[in-house]
Fold this protein.
Amino acid sequence: MNQIALLGATGSIGTSCLDVVRAHADQIQIRAVSAHRNWRELAKICHEFQPAVAIMADETVQNEAILSDFPSKTEVRFGSEAITEIAACDDINTVVAAIVGAAGLASSYAAVKAGKRVAIANKETLVVAGPIIMELARESGSELIPVDSEHSAIFQALLAGNHRDVAKIVLTSSGGPFRGLSREEIASKTPEQALKHPTWDMGPKITIDSATLMNKALEVIEARWLFNLQADQIEVVVHPQSIVHSFVEYRDGSVIAQLSPPDMRLPIQYALSYPQRWDAVAPRFDFKTAQHLDFSPPDLATFPALKLGFDVAKQGGTSGSVLNAANEIAVSRYLQNELSFYDIERVCREVLSAHEFIASPTLDELVALDDWARKETTLWQP
Ligand code: NDP
Ligand code: MG
C-alpha cells in the first residue's frame, strides 16, 4: 500500500488526486493532507479519507477552524513547519506536491531530502531551485515524477530511448484564452476574461500564467532542470486541442509523443503508479470520431513572457527565483486590477534585469532574492 501525503489537497490538482485515490483505494492510502486556509473543505476530505494528519498552513486559521468538524482519528496541525515535517515523515512513501507557488518549495525540498517519491505538480520548486533539488535527489535517491502534463508526457516519451540520444523536446501549449488575438486586443483583457481557459480547469494563478504564456515559460525552466537539458534543446509549439501533451525528438529524427484528452487525473495517476500502469480514471482518446490536431509556432511578440522563460532557462542561477517571485506578485496584483495584462511581463522583465545575479546560489540566497523580488514587484508602478 502506497502511503501518500497530499499537500494542497483542496486545490485543483488536490481534487483531481482525490479522484485517483477513490478509483485506486486498493493501491493508495492518504496518510496526510494539507491546505492553506480552507479548513471546511479539508475537514470534508478528512471525513471521506480518514488521514492520520491534517494541516492548515496559515496558523491564524487556528482561531476560526472548528476542530470538532474533523474526524476524531485525524490529528489537526497548523503552520508551514508542520507541512515540511510531514513531507519527510517515515510513514509516508510518496508526497504529492500540489501547493501553488514558491510556498511549496520547503515541503518539496524536505520530501526530496528524505528520499521520498515526489509527484511534483508544484513546478515553482524546480523553477526556483532546480539545480539544488536535482542534486539533492541524486544524493538521497528521491524519485521526482512530474505531474505537469507536458513533463509527464516527456517523462514517458524518454522511456523510448537513451538520454544522450535526445536531440530536443517540444512542449505543447494550448495558447491560452487569447490565442490568435493581437497585442492591442489583449492589452485591455480583464482578469475575468483571462480566467476562462479553453481546455484546462485549473487554479487561478496557473490560469493567468496560461493566458500570458508565463506558465509555458515556467515549464521551459522546469523541463531544463528536471530532464537535465540545455535551454536550446527545448522548444514550444502551440497546439490548441491539448491532446498531444509534448514530444521528444531523438537524434535519428524519431519523434515520440504522449496523447490523451486534457485531464490532470492521468498524469497524477501515472506519477503514483509508475513504473506500472493502472486502469484509467480519466476519459480515453476517441479515435472513432474525427479529430484535428493543429500545431503552430508561438507568437513571442504577442506573448513576450515566453521569451523570459527561455532567457531564464539559459541564465540559471538566481534568475528562476526572481522571475517566479515577481510573477506571483504581478499575477496577484493583476487579479486585484492593480496592473494591466502586459504589466505582468513588464514588471517581471524589469525586476529580473535589476537583480544582483548569482550563478551558483545557495538555498538561502534564493529565498532572500525571492523576498527582494516580491517587495520590488509590490512597489512597482506602471
Ligand atoms: P490551486 O490554487 O487550485 O490550489 C492550491 C493548493 O495549495 C490549495 O490546496 C491551497 O489551499 C494550497 N495553498 C495555497 N497557498 C498555500 C500556502 N501559502 N501554503 C500552503 N498551501 C497553500 O492550485 P492548482 O491545484 O491549480 O496548482 C497547484 C500546483 O500544481 C501549482 O504549482 C501549479 O502550477 C501546478 N499545476 C497545476 C495544474 C492544474 O491543472 N491545476 C496543471 C499543472 C501543474 P487553500 O485551498 O486552503 O487555499
Ligand atoms: Mg502544464
Remarks:
- The chain has a mean pLDDT of 97.
- The CA atoms of residues 140 and 254 lie 34 Å apart.
- Residues 148-150, 219 surround magnesium ion (ligand 2) (CB under 6 Å).
- The first strand starts at residue 2 and ends at 7.
